[in-house]
Amino acid sequence: MTSASLAVASLSYSRPWLPSSTVPQGPRQRVLHSLGVSRRHVAIIEAKKGNPPIMPAVMTPGGPLDLSSILFRNRIIFIGQPVNSQVAQRVISQLVTLAAVDADADILIYLNCPGGSTYSILAIYDCMSWIKPKVGTVCFGVAASQGALLLAGGEKGMRYAMPNARIMIHQPQTGCGGHVEDVRRQVKEAVQSRHKIDKMYAAFTNQPLEKVQQYTERDRFFSASEALEFGLIDGVLETEY
């Protein structure tokens, strides 16, 4: 057995405060459980019909847990800042760890993200696609620039947004400098990145590539319902308040 296999095998995971009978089943139930909506009526407007997910509150008889521990133990990763290499390293580490702990349980990524490094965003997306667990996405606030790419890149049927969320897509931004040959190569790389991302959006949304290219030519903003219609998400989470 390799050292990597030993490391994975040594991982253990338990949630003693969450009895097995209360563990949520299905992507919609997981999303609403993670939001802690036991006292609120919740309706889901989505492309496909389904029952509104209702999740029990998480109890911690051992005392209060810090926020990051509660989220992680409930298989939730929160991205609330521009994504750089450090943020990508943290998110990828969490994804790989959660996949090693339970390869069959879903993972949720909460996004309030204005964008960030294209390379870092693509690294996270590659990890989401590589690991066995399904990775759902939920937008709070904003998912802009390449943050929208992460939102749309979640498991189909598990991509959600809150009713007041805003989603924005556009072509990648870049800055060039250095010798003329360096600038030429940087521009070529930026053009290739744009073509790659446009193709990804076309696959995520089932929209024609030409339409995606038209939308990403400049900043294109969507409300939650517009993002649902375009295919960036699969549902809008709403409460009666």
Spans where pLDDT lies below 50 across 5 or more residues: 1-21, 38-57
Question: Which range best describes the helical content: under 10%, 10-25%, 25-40%, 40-55%, 55-70% or over 70%?
Answer: 40-55%
Overall CATH class: Alpha Beta
CATH homologous superfamily descriptor: 2-enoyl-CoA Hydratase, Chain A, domain 1
Shape: globular
- Could you say how many structural domains there are in total? 1
| Span between termini | 54 Å
What letter string, H or E per element, gives the SSE order? Answer: HHEHEHEHEHEEHHEHE
Q: What amount of the residues lies in strands?
A: 15-25%
- The CATH architecture assignment turns out to be Alpha-Beta Complex
CATH topology category name: 2-enoyl-CoA Hydratase, Chain A, domain 1
Question: How does the major sheet shape up?
Answer: 8 strands, mixed
* Mean pLDDT score: 80
Number of helices: 9
Count all strands and give the number.
Answer: 8
**What Rg is obtained from the alpha carbons, in whole angstroms?**
19 Å
Short précis:
With 241 residues, the protein is an alpha/beta fold.
Description of the structure:
- By secondary structure, the chain is α/β, with parallel strands linked by helices.
- It has a single domain (3-170, 219-239), classed as 2-enoyl-CoA Hydratase, Chain A, domain 1, CATH 3.90.226.10.
- Helix content is 42%, strand content 17%.
- The protein is built from nine helices and eight strands.
- Strands 1, 2, 3, 4, 5, 6, 7 and 8 form an eight-stranded mixed sheet that branches.
- Strand 2, helix 4 and strand 3 (107-113) form a beta-alpha-beta unit.
- Helix 5 (118-130) packs parallel to helix 6 (146-152) and helix 7 (180-205) packs across helix 8 (209-216).
- The longest helix is centred in the last third of the chain and has 26 residues, at 180-205.
- It is globular and about 65 Å long.
